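Supplementary Data S3. Sequence and structure tokens for construct A.
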Amino acid sequence: MKKIVLLTLISGVAMSFNLFATTQKLLAKKEQVTNLQWVDPFIGTGGDGHTFPGAVVPFGMMQLSPDTDTVMRGVDPQPEIYKRCAGYHYDDHTIVGFSHTHFSGTGHSDLGDLLIMPMVDQVLIEPGTAADPDSGYRSRFSHDQEWASPGYYGVELLDSNIKAELTTTERAGMHQYTFRKGEEAHIILDLTTAIYNFENKVIWSDIRKINDHTLVAYRATNGWANNRQMYFAIEFSQPIDSYEFINLDDNRYRCMGCLGKEKHSTIENKQVKEAAGKAIKFVASFNNPTAKPIKVKVALSAVSKSNALENLKAEIPDWNFAHVRKQAEQKWDGYLSKFEAQGTTAQKRQFYTSLYHALQAPSIYQDVNGEYRGIDGEIHQGKDHIHYTLFSLWDTYRALHPLLTYIAPDRVGDMVQSMLDHYQQSYDKMLPIWSFHGHETWTMIGYHAVSVIADAYLKGIRNFDTKLALEAVLATSNSPIYDAINEYKEFGYVPMDVLPESVSITLEYAYDDFTIARLLEAMGKPNDAKAYFQRAMSYKNVFDHSVGYMRGRDSKGNWDPEFNPEEAKYMGPFTEGNSNQYTFYVPHDVKGLIDLIGGDKKFEQRLDALFDTHLSDEMIKEHEDIAGLIGNYAHGNEPSHHIAYLYNYAGKPWRTQERIRQIMDTLSSDKPDGLAGNDDVGQMSAWYIFSAMGFYPVAPGDLSYAFGAPQLPSIALNLSNGNVFKVEANKLSHSNKYIKSAKLNGQVLKLSFITHQQIMAGGTLLFEMSDKPNKQWGEANADRPPSLSN
């Protein structure tokens, strides 16, 4: 960390007493500048990064953030929702309001629960459109008057001259609105909005006024997850002077007061305390709004309104906005201090913002009393662990979950136990595939929860039910109901006439089976492990020697007659990719793949061809997720993330060093569009953190990390066992991108990989960098990263 530099002005005669006294006070405080300063939540909010800039704490259930467009009932045309999967996009110029749940970096949209928006004088109950913001309660804004930092977001709403500020705890958030004009302030609570690409998402909602400060609300939605339920406790910092309940379906609303009569028939009834329906809104009105800021506290619960009230009382008991913000910053500082990185300002901004994004999920999904809503829809008690949600496992098993074993190992066991909760509660007795908020979406392929479980267990993280974990892993990998597992076991591959994306599924099953074998081996079950090691070789069954690529085949063994290695066809043999990319998806046995392709030289040539051969738009037009292209390499999508590291396995680590620098220089920056594709719940960010350090987990579960090349001059990782693992890159520069030599704790390192045990032991990994490649380093077979075949 940098210490604040105190500039002491010394004159030739004497120093003033006041300056001396001030200096002494500052020196006594020993104030430090923390890594918070390097985080820019706007990185990734442009392009297709799909991150949000709002307030959140590490692993928080509450993600309180602005929405620049949402799907509205009866509004046409609908917004380009893929661009706004997180509710916010940097290109937009109006804000609809602030909602309390968001995804970070996903390629799919949902959430956006309970939108809140302040306004002045005139009550508007529809949001209006981006083309005509004056038609509704949305407001124009400017990035010049917008601020975000860990745990905080602020913006000037230009149309109403209101300063809006947000901060959060794990389960609650606080809004602070400073009104600079107007005789009356209004705050709308809109339960109808959605971050999703169809209307009529709300199944049912209700809102009830408890007293002149407090409301409770509920809504159930159909979206990516069906019948997803959320409860809210809402409290205002001052009494509500007048209010309205609005039910758009009935084309009427009940009110106390006379707001908005010109648009709706009105039933005035001072006894009305609640409203229910599919299109419910509430407007709270306050007199003399410029006297002091109006604050709103909101807490979430997936269980009940009473639990939401309990969460609110427990986490934000008072109205001290600055204190809540400070607490959020302290929580972030605790995690951001896990690393001490040196480099340019842009490099540190990218590094620490990546760390910030990597710490947002999986997120807490449990109330302060321990209750949560399970995958079965029932209420459960997390007796001995915190229950987590949001497992985007096709993305995050690769680098995010391995990263969490170093920076949040105390949470990893609870995350695994949460997966086991899912297994026990699911009708199908399956571990999660892509789940959130007590729902399984069945999105993407593989059964990658087994990779996360095996990697944690093999690293010594075992504070979960290991016996149940083994049961769940075996049951999931043999499930008769999931994605042609029976055919996979029968044929040794998934036939393309049985299931689309068959080649990708086969390859990912094979990797998952490798991790199960490793787990069984570590649990003292060598015979069972042997069967899974054999299953892990199934990748060979979809490699067509006649063309040299992974290729679809049917249940009779016939190869795909329409094969084109560059085409990424929707519902074709590959998942969000093509054969060029997926042929390299054998992370657990790269040596075996090299042999299939024809040896080291041919393998290197194939890697070069992947990076150097232009991929036309025509070949990927059916997949908007394929982004961040260097030739056929698609950094914006996960199947490519390990590929640059594969040169190591052919004895050419210097080629990996070239490719990593190429990716870093061309596909990442510290700008809003600085991510090459969806951050995918932190996976892209985790790739950056590992790659900046100079190594990457090609095959989580084998406990080795293939070397790339360090991208920052120094990065220290403060480990949970008290050790510090430091990576230093001497003479690193734009031209000095190659590793000349390496030493680990003073000992010459010939291997082109490092192990988990070496990292946890702490010490210093020292790289001497050069502008010329060392073509002998890591060339010998014995010096290459491990593969199943050797």
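Construct B, processed identically:
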Amino acid sequence: MTKLLVDSLKCEYRFNPLGIDVKKPRISWKMQSDLRGTLQKAYRIQVVVGRDDFMEMLWDTGIVYTDESIQIEYGGPDLTPRTRYFYRIKVWDNFDRESSWSTTSWWETGLLDTSEWKAKWITPSTEQLDPLSEPTFLLRKGFNVKKEIISARIYGTGVGLYELFLNGERVGDDLLSPGWTSYHKRLQYQTYDVTDLLTEGSNVVGIVLADGWYKGTLSFEDKRHVYGDRRAALLQLYVTYSDGSEEMIVTDTTWKASTGPILYSEIYNGETYDARREIGGWSLPNFDDHNWKGTIIQDLPFSNLVAQENWPTRVTEVIKPVDAFITPAGDTVIDMGQNMVGRVRFKVSAKEGTRIVLKHAEVLDKEGNIYFGNLGKAEQKIEYFTKGEDVETYAPHFTYQGFRYVKIEGYPGQENGLPLENFFGEVIHSDMELTGEFECSNPIINQLQKNIVWGQRGNFLDLPTDCPQRNERLGWTGDAQVFIDTALFNYHGGPFFTKWLRDLKADQLPDGNVPIVIPAVVAGVGSAAWGDAATIIPWTVYQNYGDKRLLSEQYESMKAWVEYIRKQGKSEYLWNTGFHFGDWLALDAKENSFVGATPKDFIATVFYAYSTRILRDTAEVLEKSDDVQEYCVLLEKIIAQFNDEFVSPSGRLVSPTQTAHVIALMFDLVDGKAKERTAYELNELIIQNNYHLTTGFVGTPYLCLALSKGGYHETAVKLLLQEKFPSWLYAVNKGATTIWEHWDSIKEDGSFWSDQMNSFNHYAYGSIGNWMYQNVAGLSKDKAVPAYKRIRIEPKFAGIELTHAKAAFESMYGRILSSWRLSHEEVEMEVEIPPNTTADILLPYADLSDVLESGKLLIDSMDIITYFESKEGVRLTVGSGTYHFKYRNMRGLKPTYSEETRLIDLLDQKEAMKVLDKYAPGITKPPGIFAMKSQTLIALADFPESNLTGDMVRALIEELNKIEWELVK
């Protein structure tokens, strides 16, 4: 019996979300089918309220004939606060099959409206407890549960950070709540199901309050009290009894306050904990709190409160140290084996008052000593004083560190060796769903991919930070936008970027200018490629998840940014004024400068065009026809002005930098002969630099993409495989386990780049991942159809070093796989396409009559929608299913071009003339050509006296490839 199933039901990107404020939540699902080519023909959704028996229907769509299966908006009666809604789905497919009902899922609303808040913001009495004191505050409230309960929910938040306790138990496993938002405009609250923590009779709810981002030290400017100088808490606990009655416990002046064992806690500097000052049973019933202080109402708003939007921050993995050693300086250090972000948990038995200190750092210096120089003013220090009772266990509460190495001081017996089994590295970040996989035949590239993922984990802690260790850790817009494609492949970023984009919109200035960091806590606005996060990120989220609502929500922000740029330049169609970071940290920068050689107005105008293109496309998606027309005209004029200003009549760019050529190609600012010349000259710039890059933050993310797009994929692969400085693999070979901020954060001699700006966990250059997934493994989306509804599988082969690559991605529709393997004789490809999607596939260099699919000739397959031969190979379109392709490798394993194998890519004059006479009889031969390189063949078509056509060029390249392989053999 054939099977058609509906599973993976999600509401607002989540499985069974608790406490959401979305009034028309969106539902998505995936299908499972044992038949190839399965498409959804219709769906039916049923929603009930309060109970899951589906007897009294709240909303029933009936049979809806459509292939849409993601982002389906709830269309029933208005939702009510604090209510659970159950839903189920069935579908019909193109084989006239009807699925059974899916398993039941649910969502539960939060308070939905600020008017639902009955609690008061409270803080300890300022007359009894210094509001500016460093120790964290403890707040407690006792109450009685009078009868049998059926449910209980806490809705709570705090400024700055808080943890909840109920009857002595920690509530939930979230950390650093409520996260970091633009607090004056948006403050998240969290919802907790505490039904199982309550007992009939006496109960106690407790809150611990710390400074966090709200009032602690922020940024390299050492700002304090950015949002306020008083901690405060807000909580409502609803208890629902079995008889249907309800009781509410809220924060008010009946709560009691004290300080506890956390004497100091700061995001950058760490935490001091004195276990001797623990107050046993403080959140348990029957605790005597008569000596505790009173509380007062704090005048804080409710209008900025929103339900939790982002993935919660949690411990997502625990790793054990791999080594402990004594440094040449005499320090005792443990090595986690991985540059990570989070905290160390340790166990200890020691006499009362023993002071244990942990100092965290990323690397060792060339002498083997632990290196703190790049931390700036961030101490990253943990102090713990023992209480002297049995085995004590501790991990900090309201801080986090970026580190691989930890200097240990005061641990009992450490002079005889540390007991590594007593130390644990707890990895902390936003608990995003892992969606991407990549691997290939080169183990160093596989380590690079691991470094990219670890860099994302470490810097996606409630917002996309630039670094997790020094006194910065800010949401830099430029870093986020260049990494967004890679980020959304590796992890599901829907909730993460929804939350952050709302902060961007909230902090955007009235004139449309976008601050350089979000939340906006430092000065500086308006830089090209940084402020463009306002357009690039919502558009990329839409492309990945089909999130039209977010696109609509951010549209005015996107438009405001483009209009801000439009008003800046001396010409309406150029951006040639104001401050810009330029190609930040590029290697072609002048001495003692962070800014690369590419002119800032060149970069600014390119991104002006790019954001305008995105805005035009967004307007088209949102059916804003007037704006489509307006921004189409604006884009055309920007491109025309760019070419007048920055491109010579013969097609040469005015800026001879790699970055200038990369971004002009990548964002389609040049066309025709100028485009061909730009691609050719970019390739030559790489070759002339001995296959090394010189690009910075602006050029690097697009470098390999532009090369592959321009027809020079082999050069892109060569750059990826480059192991000498500067390169991605240079850092890997230096022992990096995350991505560095600088190409030479550690120099060849073991010394460091300047302490002023030297993070060893800085994900921007990890954006190479996007090219690896799309071009090497060949997995990408059709940009005209969002959310991978139409998939592209188009790997590019190059180099004997890469004989296998695989990428897998868990899309909104299901798992996509592109995997290939080469030998001298054969190409094997495996492709997996989820139901309700289709895919366009390229089998590179294949001959149609030669291709086998699952052991049968492709031309005999009934499951292939279309197929045809092209100059690149065999192109075909398929529906869902798993496909196994095999065909002869007509090219063998073709080496990449390098100095060592230069002969491989050369032909003598006799062979060159023979090939030209065969494929282009009568052609005018350019004088002085004694040898011919394959990468210059395209350029021959531009030789003034030549009559070489594009078809001739393609034939020449194919023939040249065959002759090259014969030379290798």
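The chain has six domains: 4-109, 114-263+276-306, 313-430, 436-740+753-776, 779-888, 902-968. The domain at 436-740+753-776 is CATH 1.50.10.10 (Glycosyltransferase).
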